[in-house]
Amino acid sequence: MSHRLGDVVTTALRVLDDHGLADLTMRRLAAELDVRPSALYHHVASKQALLAAVADEILARGARDLPTGDWRTRHHAAATALRDALLAYRDGAEVVAAVQALGPAERDPRLQVHEALTGLPDDVRRVGATTTVIFVLGHAQDEQLATGAASAGATDGRARLDAASFDAGLRLIEDGLAARVALQG
Prior knowledge:
- The protein has helices spanning 5-19, 26-33, 37-40, 47-62, 71-87, 92-102, 110-116, 122-151, 163-184.
- The protein has nine helices and no strands.
- The longest helix is centred in the last third of the chain and has 30 residues, at 122-151.
- By secondary structure, the protein is mostly helical.
- The chain has a domain at 58-184: Tetracycline Repressor, domain 2, CATH 1.10.357.
């Protein structure tokens, strides 16, 4: 059976969701697609390239149009959409964080956050977008790790971080950005 890159990525997302990142191997993916592992290399050059394609798909599926309104409203919406995209797949935050750190991803989650901060000085937008994405990735990873630990019976299941702590963190970032703009005059 012949597969396209889209089939490979869709199946990889399913394996990720069903088994987690540790079990998303080229061998398992090939078995799911009923092909030899070597056949996957017609679509992706390496496991890192596969993870980059999976990360890009996670971000693409989670992309949302920014609302109208002030920069705080747009920023909050962009960061929340990113968090939702990461949490939509088991270990989604870990995949995207690893690909952002190691490359080579096509999609950069900082771009939409940077766009959301339109109206602020360029240097503040750049730092604000990076800071926001690092916060969102870390928060989502913590949430996913806690969920995994609870489902394995390793914890009592009480979440340390949730949507309320996420919103509070975003407000702190937004207050910091506003303070930086006010200092710059």
